[in-house]
Design goal:
By secondary structure, this protein is an alpha/beta fold. Helices cover about 30% and strands about 35% of the residues. The protein is built from 9 helices and 15 strands. Strands 1, 2, 3, 4, 5 and 11 form a 6-stranded mixed β-sheet that branches. Strand 13 (about 225-235) and strand 14 (about 245-250) form a beta hairpin. Helix 8 runs antiparallel to helix 9. The longest helix has 14 residues, at about 10-25. It starts with a strand and ends with a strand.
Length: about 280
């Protein structure tokens, strides 16, 4: 089973895929690393992979806006979600000591989540890099003895590096929510079975151009007895000041979410159900 991720092997997305699917697939899972998120979606839609694991939201950094846009544009569905505790580690070549390090490479988001530790080590220059795990891959390949990467522990195991300092993130309560994405409809018979006991759904909708339509749409969720846990708005390309709303809902029974969807249609120009799954 091929599972696509955005970023290099050893990244947080790689860790999330192992945590979400490792018990089910084990050694039968092959991780396909993609440079760009759009490439991940293209692989899922083309059927060159069986699914993808992508981040949708971080508890500190917020939502991954690009992934909302791609979810709306591409024929995929959310099949599962998981939460990953994010830990940032300073990783160098074997034998390297902290005193040797003059530069720390990592993705800008990871660097921003390690500001306190970096400020306490002014001798180390923080340098933006395209990927957390990619920073470790680069320093190992280039043989850089004065450079470290800030990345998950899995990156050290993946590329043969050493963790010089573990857990340098500013906040311990740092979590990323990930989705397992499948093609919808599937191109071939799938090994995936529908989630049993689904109690959460993700939707996208745009409201009609009448006063109060957004309020009316949101009221339908309350009337149906479902719990709105998140709302996100994204601009519609080429249509200034028009928006698509993305919502996450928790429900007790399929009848509840079905009733909410049926009522929502009366207030909206577009409604797309992105998936039903078990809440993490």
């Amino acid at each position: 089973m091929k599972i696509a991720i955005q970023g290099e092997l050893g990244s947080n997305s790689h860790m999330a895929a192992l945590a979400m699917l490792g018990d089910t697939l084990g050694s039968e899972m092959e991780i396909v690393a993609c440079a760009m998120s759009a490439e991940v979606f293209e692989c899922v839609v083309a059927g060159s992979v069986d699914g993808a694991v992508l981040p949708i939201e971080n508890s500190l950094h917020g939502s991954v806006a690009e992934h909302y846009d791609l979810l709306l544009a591409q024929p995929v569905r959310i099949a599962r979600e998981s939460l990953l505790r994010v830990r940032h580690n300073l990783i160098g070549r074997p034998g390297t000591k902290l005193a040797d390090i003059r530069r720390a490479l990592s993705h800008p988001v990871a660097l921003s989540q390690c500001r306190i530790w970096l400020a306490a080590h002014p001798e180390i220059e923080a340098v933006n890099f395209y990927d957390t795990a990619g920073s470790v891959k680069h320093l190992m390949t280039a043989g850089l003895g004065d450079t470290a990467g800030i990345a998950p522990e899995l990156a050290a195991r993946q590329y043969g590096g050493d963790v010089l300092v573990a857990g340098i993130e500013d906040h311990a309560e740092n979590y990323t929510r990930f989705h397992l994405l499948l093609r919808e409809p599937p191109l071939r018979e799938s090994a995936w079975t529908p989630a049993t006991g689904a109690n959460k759904a993700s939707l996208a909708f745009s409201v009609a151009h009448r006063p109060g339509t957004l309020v009316l749409a949101l009221e339908e969720f309350a009337l149906a007895g479902v719990n709105l846990t998140k709302i996100e708005s994204r601009p519609v390309p080429g249509m200034p000041w028009e928006y698509v709303f993305f919502v996450d809902l928790k429900f007790d029974s399929p009848a509840q979410i079905d009733a909410a969807l049926a009522a929502l249609v009366g207030h909206c120009q577009m409604v797309k159900e992105l998936g039903r799954y078990v809440a993490a």
